Amino acid sequence: MIWDWAFAASIVPSLLDGLWVTVQVTLVGTAIALLLGLGVAVVRYSRIPLLGKLFDFFVLFVRGTPLLVQAYFAFYVLPNVGVQFSPLVTGIIVIGINYSAYTAEVYRAGIQSVPAGQWEASTALSLSAVQRWRFVVLPQAVRDVVPALGNYVVQMFKDSAILSAITVFELLSHATSIGSGSYRYLEPLTIAGLLFLAVSLPAAKLIKRLELRLAHPR
Question: Residue 178 pLDDT more than 60?
């Protein structure tokens, strides 16, 4: 098969539409993962009875099952019990919850890296639990784990292609649809790969710059 420049140019707008859906999934999914993961990490570290155990199980279960299985369950099983959303919303929620289990572990590592003296100082200053977490612990913990969190953002961007299995018409879905309709897969899949690369590389560089900016002074 020979590369057809005219055909490649004609399919770019459709692939860009798919890329926009992929970006939406990544941005909203990242917000869910970061916020939910932070809440899970704080509750688990605080050893809140029952709720802490429940979140322990949540992290183990989500990390121990494939994202694809979770997506299938949410899209094909949950509607039978009255829980039904559009494919896009379902995909965003599933990938956000999936990655929240991983970000929770990253946050936990960051929290554990905060020196014991910081906890003791906040206690000596009579800070409330909310003030301790907000002003002392979390600013230090998050700064230490920015690189790991950033890596998960880039990984989520690439893993969003899995959601094509539940009819989320993202970048890969557009590429395969064009290929099956035209019997030409070279151009759509190649361009899709380049678009993934065009977003993930700058994102990785931006995360690296953020990491350097937040680094502890030597």
Answer: yes
